[in-house]
Structure formats: structure tokens, C-alpha cells
Amino acid sequence: MNSTQKTLVTLLSAAIRGKDIDKLDIHDINWREVYEEAKAHEVYALIYPLFKKMSKTCNIDSILLTEWSKDTIINSIVQTQHINQMKNVFKAFEEDGVPVIALKGLILRDLYPRPEFRTMSDADILVKEEFVEAAETVLLQLGYKKDSSIAYECCFIHENNLSIDLHWSLSNHEHLRNVAPFEDTVWNNLRELDFHGVKVQALSLEYELMHLFIHIASHMIKSGFGVRQLCDIVVFIESERTAIDWDLLFDLSESCRLNKLISVILTLCDTLLDLNVPATYKTNYFDSAEYIKILTNEVFESGVYGKRDETRVTSTRILSHSLQSNDDFNKFKLIFRYVFPSSDKLDKRYSYASKYTFLIVFAWLHRIFYELFLNTFKRLKELFKLSSTASLVKDRFDLIDWLQL
């Protein structure tokens, strides 16, 4: 970690617990860099109260103070509006008899000292697959529009509100093949919570925490994850530590083959945010120090969604091709497969190559022309960076392999 990252986690460690900081040389901090790092991880609002307090005792740029304050206030208004809207959404589901589970940020935000400072860019909800059509109808009646969908979720956007991700599964089983038994029992392991005056269903404590780790594992494979996800785990464990059945969680994680990932993530939470790791997960693995270092760098470079810059986005595309090929990492083969993918890995735009395999060469040329010349030359930059990007991909490939994902 560099000095900016160390400052950020020091601030976060205090902020998520509602504490002040007594061991920080505030006069040697580049606050602009701290702010940009916090923005990349969507935690700038969490540490704003501490920043504002420190600004009274040191010379902080007034422009930065105004910018940070403005962003935090706007975020708080948006988050408050989002929660009020979700109350209406949950009421509508109840009236139409559609069982729904509130996920992630909707439940976790209230565990923070200042819930309105825990940012959400959307709302995640889960329904049974047989209720997907009914749930879509409810959302359409509330003014949402169907935007995009993948194998296990569909995004609904709204003109005046944050989007809603409607899930009928908690993860992509192509990425995590061992979570199906866990998902089969989700609807039998719920708890009822008061969501600002509205009764909602949430996952049981063990299933909630397990879902957070599954979410991290999925993002680890797909794009990466940032510091905010670690904050969520810390506040959840510290809030519910004595109520969590750790033996049950261990059994669940073992059935999903995620025990190693969970032990490593909890160790990282201890390293960065001073979490007292539960005894069940205090395990030392071979080469753990080396890979914890790689993982730490991965977390900071990812940003909140794993799409912090074009290099990371490109590495994700290349890594996806490499993981799907199920063979050993080879830089030349990896780059070759990225530039000249098989017909089944081409975008829908080039689906004709799947139907008529003799058109694969034409599809490659079509793709190169489109990506390099019609896509605002963005991909051209990627092509020149492929060799250096491959090094990042190798680190991520090795890390995923070491975590047994």
C-alpha cells in the first residue's frame, strides 16, 4: 500500500465504527489523493465526517473541502430518496403477493454509524424464479423499464430513481459451480426485518454473510472488488458476531468450497480494517503473505466495481477468455485468443460465425475493424497495452487459482 491507501484505510477503520482518530499525522496527507482514492471505492462519504473535523485543525484546500462536502450532501439526498422509493417497491410487492428478499446494501447500510453515507448505486432484490414475471409486472407498473439482463438477474431503470437489479439467483453458476446447494436452501433461511416502517424478508445471518463472500468471489472472477465490500463484511461481523452460528457458516462455506477464500478475505479485513478474525477462520496457507500482498493491490486497483481504468477492463476481458479455456496461463496464447476468439466466445454481433463456421476469419476482421475504428479508437489503446496488461492478468489468474476459485 502507498501512503494514500494507508491513510484511507486508517480513516475507514475509524469511520465504520463511529470513532475519532488519534494516531494520524494530518499535516503530511495529500487530501486530494485521499479523496480520489475514496471516490474510486465509493467510500468518500463514509470518511467525510472525519475529514471535515480534521479540516478545522489543518490547512486543507477550501476548493476540495467544498467539493467533498457537496458530493457527500448530494449522495445523502440520493440515498435517502432511494430508501423511500424502495419502501414503495416493497409495499407494491407485498400487495401483489410477490415474495421478495432484500439483499446487500439495503440491509447492510443500517449497520453503519451514518447509514446515509453508505452509498448504493442500485438496489438488489431476490425473487423465486416462478415469480420473475410477476415481479417484472410490479416494477413496470411503478415506472421502471427493463434495461438489460444476464443469466441470473435483470436490471430495471427509472427516470427519477436508482435502478433495481432483480435476481432469481444469487450468482452465476458458470463462475461458481459449487453454490447451487447453498442457493437451494436460501428460501428456508430467512429473517424478517423492519425496513424503515415496512416489513421485509432478508437472508438469515449466516446466509447473509455467506452471500457477501459469494458476491466477492463472483466479482473476483468477473472484474474485481474494492474496499467497500470489505467494510460491509467488517460492520456485519462486528454487529452480529455473537448471534452468528459460525459452525453453520463453516459448513456452508465448505459445501461451496469457499473456505480458503473466506479465511483470506477475513485476514485481509484484519490487515486493513483491524477485524478480529473469528477463530474458525484463523488459518495460515502456504505462500499466504505473497498472495495477500497481491490481493491487497488487486483490491485497491479494482475500485468499487473492478472497472477503475481501461487496463483493468481489458484485463477482465482477457482473463475471461483464459478462465473459459481451462488450460495453463500462457501470455502468447492468451493474447492470441483475445484477438482471435473462437466463434462461441464472440459477441452476438458476430453470431453468424457460429452458424457458418467458415465465416470465422471474416468475423475476426469485422471485429477488429469495429473495435479499433468504429469504437472511438478506445480498443486501439488496449491493443498496444496487451503485453503489459497480460502481466496484470497473470497476477489475477494466479490469485484466482490460489484461492481455489
Automatic annotation (TrEMBL):
Lineage top rank: taxon = Bacteria
Designated name of the protein: Nucleotidyltransferase family protein
Source species of the chain = Clostridium polyendosporum
